[in-house]
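For the sake of transparency, this paper describes our internal protein records without simplification. Such a record has a labelled line for the sequence and another for the backbone structure tokens. Nothing more is needed to write down the fold, since each code stands for a local backbone conformation. For reference, a complete record is included directly beneath this paragraph.
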Amino acid sequence: MQFMKELRGKEVIDREGNTIGLVEDLDISESGRVTRIIALPKGIVNKITRKRLNIGIEDVETVSHLIMLNKTEEELKGIFKCKACEQTFESENSRKLHFIKKHKKPAKKTPIKKRIVKKKRKK
């Protein structure tokens, strides 16, 4: 498994360009395909507690001298922030509901116009 040696220690970057951590290990299926990347997050506290990030292969955009992801760090950890007030939520749906309720004006209710069908008169 030559590629396993090559990927270990590579830097993992999210779609915004922030460094998430370094590749520590790979999860390989029975058929020999990489299914998950296990990364050690940056920071001294994370290195001491040995918390890992499990990154699915579907979240990887490109692999070169860096591993670029198509998600942000918050999305990988399951943290979603409201763009208007920076409040955090555990799911995308709860963030959307909060945004609609707190930051958007309610939609104006327009009356339903009844279609008037004119009958043609016979002459």
Summary: The chain has two domains: 2-71, 74-104.
